Amino acid sequence: MKKLIECVPNFSEGNDFTIIKQITDEIEKVEGVKLLNVDPGKATNRTVVTFVGNPDACVVAAFNAIKKAGELIDMSKHKGEHPRMGATDVCPFIPISGITMEETAEYAQQLAKRVGEELKIPVYLYEAAQSNKSRNNLSVIRAGEYEGFFKKIKLPEWKPDFGPSDFDAKRGATVIGARDFLVAYNINLNTTSTRRANAIAFDVREAGRTKKDAKGKVVNDANGNPIVIPGTLKSVKAIGWYIEEYGVAQISMNLTNINITPVHVAFDEVCKSATARGLRVTGSELVGLIPLNALLDAGKYFLKKQQRSIGVSEKELIKIAVKSLGLDELAPFKPEKRVIEYLLNDSAKAKLVSMNLSAFADETASESPAPGGGSIAAYVGALGVSLGTMVANLSSHKPGWDERWEEFSAYAENGQQLKTELLKFVDEDTHAFNKIMAAFGLPKTTDEEKNARTQAIQLATKYATEVPFKVMELCHSSLELIAAMAEKGNPNSVSDAGVGALCARTAVMGAFLNVKINAAGLSDKTFATKIVAAGLAIQEKTIAAEAAILKIVNDKIG
Fold first, then answer.
1. Range 350-557: architecture per CATH
2. Nearest CA to 396 among 382, 380, 415, 381?
3. What is the pLDDT of residues 212-238, one digit of tens each?
4. 78 is catalytic
5. 129: alpha, beta or left, given left = phi > 0 and alpha = psi -120 to 50?
6. Beta strand 248-255 pairing with 236-243
């Protein structure tokens, strides 16, 4: 797996788009990185930029962006709602794939050293990049903000990790580090009161609030230390502020571990606190990007609260999440621009499944040998399990069956997972065929080239055998769902279960033809014999299962 990190620099400019564009242009110039998102905020006067790439390229892109921001942004004139201390206020690296947090921290340290030494900007390390635990928290480092740092930087305990110990009036200071994925998330209230918004923030944030008596005096413990009342949510930082641009107060939150406190849990907890204080949550706002699972989990959470099936499409789950969280209250929410996996997807690899039905049929009927029977088998299998999933969803909210919604929801969720996997193989079968063609096109002049070409052909052929075999396995497993729906699903849809079984059998037998024809070209006869025998066993079990399902269907139809 190639090494991939995400970088999310925050620049202290949210209104002048010519400045923002000049900064992001520096990022896009670097080969090996991809700019994913630019999210400016007028009231905060701050822009959150997200890009990903290989670590070395990210270091270069971040350095160039920090340099350009220092040239264009004058912190002595900066005003904004968000805490800040520099033109590039904070620049975290986040490990995405193929790289550890420790390795990511080393790249953050490389960047910090270069910024301090070459640009002469005071730099502080934070989170995983900072070994001194007394100064690894961003809010602690930034305390005092830009205005307070002229004195703070002179204190021995606040000597920068890199760069001069003199505060740069124009560029300020920068915090660079490595951390886990963080979701920046704001929740909107039906009030203009920052004080009331802060009260809710203190209710929910992990740090909570300092205990005070009836006269507002801080209450200390037996050792003379202030007593802290912790908030209700772990791994959450929050403050309240008023956003003039929107005319409302917000709870501004950093969800530092969405496995501990997911977005939907934070939202509901704020709703609970707001209601207790006579306020209402009207919606929310995502700053930057969010992982796909965070939205899918939110969609499932809200559907479960309605006692509805969660076995619906990915698109529908996201729609439920957006509407339930009110993510579209302040501006349209476009998943294709806000979900990190969607931005990283190579759309060219999903050419077939992105087509409409007519275009797919036209492409199949063209003179090109791909897509062929393997892709069609995978698609027919996807249609078969989709029918079984449909019956499960219809059964989950059939009048009179309300107490069985969870039973059928579980079937539908399993069906959606199988459908998603099979749709991937529609294109993957064509990719496997193209790999064989590419291998045959390799040079074969020298003995070394001939050997390399032969090996490449065999590897590609083996893969082209494994792909349809996986389709067989998935389609056969879908028959368990289809059989259950034929036997105990909504009786009005029993014929749909029957068609689903017919599709599954067709898909298995069609995929098996591809297994056999590709296995015939393998020099590894042991592997070829083994996979064909396994395929034959799946085919026989599938034919028997389909016959049993059709008997149930025909008996019910009469």
1. Up-down Bundle (1.20)
2. 415
3. 888 888 888 888 888 989 999 999 999
4. no
5. alpha
6. antiparallel
- C-alpha closest to that of 552 among 491, 475, 477, 478: 491
pLDDT, tens only, 52-90 = 999 999 999 999 999 999 999 999 999 888 889 999 999
Choosing from 89, 297, 429, 496, the catalytic residue is 429
Instruction: Give the span between the Cα atoms of 328 and 282, in whole angstroms.
Output: 11
* Nearest one of 281, 284, 82 to 196, comparing CA atoms: 281
Cα–Cα separations (whole angstroms), residue 194 to 104, 189, 191, 245, 433: 37, 10, 8, 14, 61
Structure tokens at 290: 């969010």
Cα–Cα distance for residue pair 217/210, rounded to 1 Å: 10
Superfamily name and number for 183-344: Formiminotransferase, C-terminal subdomain (3.30.70.670)
Q: Out of 82, 89, 161, 476, which one is annotated catalytic?
A: 82
Alpha-carbon distance values, 93 to 53, 129, 177, 358, 552 (Å): 11, 9, 6, 44, 57
Residue type for 377, please?
Answer: A
Is 82 an active-site residue? yes
Q: What are phi and psi of 201, to 5 degrees?
A: -60, -40
Token pair 């085919």 is found at 539
